Amino acid sequence: MSDTTYPTSRTLGRVQGNKLGTRKQAKRTTPSGTVITVKVDSKGRLLIPKSIREKLKMTTGDVCFLTLDQALGILSVAKAENPFDGLARHAIREYRAGQTKSLRQYVKERGVEINKDE
Length: 118
Description:
disordered N terminus, 6 strands
């Protein structure tokens, strides 16, 4: 058995028991989350484990942002979201809570007349 030390070992500690490259993943839970060991393939790809993809609701074709903290040697992955999806969810919540108005109500409150002939 070998120990794998991460560049951020002062905060994450050490993962005991699994060598990098074995099928079984080294996993450790820390105060900041779960650390899982993955291997880079010959094309430079990382496989995000199914359990993580499910938690983030990631599906094929999703876009992610990668952030590199070179000083600490940390690569962060964040699932990107279409901003219109967020706006749509917000609008639906407002509608269901009765916080929306029809265009006719909005215009009437502001004293604007609509020409029905045009």
